[in-house]
UniProtKB/TrEMBL annotation:
Domain of life: Bacteria
UniProt name for this protein: NADP-dependent oxidoreductase
Annotated GO MF terms: oxidoreductase activity, acting on the CH-CH group of donors, NAD or NADP as acceptor
Pfam families in UniProt: ADH_N_2, ADH_zinc_N
Gene3D superfamilies from the UniProt entry: Medium-chain alcohol dehydrogenases, catalytic domain, NAD(P)-binding Rossmann-like Domain
Domain Enoyl reductase (ER): 19-334
Alphabetized SMART domains for the sequence: PKS_ER
Record's keyword annotation contains Oxidoreductase: yes
Keywords linked to the UniProt accession: Oxidoreductase
Keyword hit for Oxidoreductase: yes
Source organism of the structure: Microbacterium oleivorans
Length: 339
């Protein structure tokens, strides 16, 4: 990799329905020497995430949409290779949100230095020890107010957030944790590796039928990454006073038509349920608390994780599309070879 140039993945047009490679373009730009206060970072890993699909639409959301022609912004981690800032000398490992490029150059204030952990890959800072883990923690604690003994149902449980949710729920005292996944292999992994007490393959039979069988005493907390039929199934079995943390709705991200709402919303009233949507921006004050607890659990060997790795910045779009199709187990990442 030549650190004097930057290969960037940009949004060429707004997708209609499922994105295709033609919705993106690849540009290579030559970088000038860093101006005072700037640093140049060679990325080691770039993140691809479901929320990015929403930002490709020109609609109101919790963050502005991507502009046409701009680099796809998102999480990445790398190492400073050139610096005109005393705050971030060459060799410093940094997190940032500059997204889909192999090399990025910008003001030092847009990067955050992080410590390297012996024997731990840098990539974990982009998931279980980073925003992914924090999302799971916030959803369970601040949003769903998990109580010891609660029964928890998690949709999209084999993804990056879902695998974190199951483990954190058990560590916080959940009595029973049930997850959904998109294959028998993923469902088996949830119970074998991630602490789930039971798991269903949503392709086997209607979620509504399977969840009722797995949760005969009902569900107290539903952590939703999917929406659609999973939300409907959860509403069927929620216990009185149940809490729903709405983290994502990937079932509808690529739909070109509006999906009908659940047919059992009246359960929200009759059972006194609460459903709260959330994004991390309003809960970053919980980051120190999460970091302290997660670092301890991780050091004790109580946290497992999976990564699905695609090599090469030129394959970022392929990785994103594969993640949207559910091809990943755990966190989907693009790895960028060192120069």
């Amino acid at each position: 990799m030549n650190n004097d140039t930057s290969t960037q993945i940009r949004l060429a047009r707004r997708p209609e329905g499922w994105p295709t490679p033609d919705d993106f373009t690849v540009a290579t730009v030559t970088l000038d020497e860093p101006a005072p206060g700037e640093v140049r970072v060679a990325n080691a890993f770039v993140s691809v995430d479901p929320y990015m699909r929403g930002r490709m639409n020109d609609v109101r959301s919790y963050v502005p949409p991507y502009a046409l022609g701009d680099v796809i912004a998102g999480g990445a981690i790398g190492r400073v290779v050139a610096s005109a800032s005393d705050a971030l000398p060459v060799g410093t490992v940094v997190l940032h949100q500059h997204g889909w490029s192999d090399v990025v150059q910008a003001d030092a204030s847009t990067f955050r230095a992080v410590a390297e952990l012996p024997g731990v890959p840098l990539s974990v800072r982009l998931h279980i020890l980073g925003m992914t883990g924090l999302t799971a923690y916030v959803g369970l604690t601040a949003i769903a107010r998990l109580q010891p003994g609660d029964t928890v149902f998690v949709s999209g449980a084999a993804g990056a957030v879902g695998t974190a949710v199951g483990q954190i729920a058990k560590l916080l005292g959940a009595g029973r944790v049930i997850g959904s996944a998109g294959s028998a292999e993923k469902a088996a992994l949830l119970t074998a590796k991630y602490g789930y007490d039971a798991a269903l393959d949503y392709k086997d039979a209607p979620v509504r039928e399977q969840l009722a069988t797995l949760a005969p005493e009902g569900v107290d907390v539903f952590f939703d990454n999917v929406g659609g039929d999973h939300l409907e199934a959860a509403l069927d079995v929620m216990n009185t006073g149940g809490r729903i943390a709405l983290c994502g709705a990937i079932a509808g991200y690529n739909s070109t038509e509006k999906s009908p709402g659940p047919d059992n919303m009246a359960n929200m009233i009759t059972r006194g349920l609460s459903a709260t949507g959330f994004t991390l921006g309003s809960y970053l004050h919980l980051s120190p608390e999460f970091t302290e607890r997660m670092t301890g659990w991780f050091a004790e060997g109580r946290i497992a994780y999976d990564e699905t790795i695609v090599d090469g910045i030129e394959n970022t779009v392929e990785a994103f599309l594969a993640m949207m199709r559910g091809a990943n187990t755990g966190k989907m990442l693009v790895r960028i070879p060192e120069a």
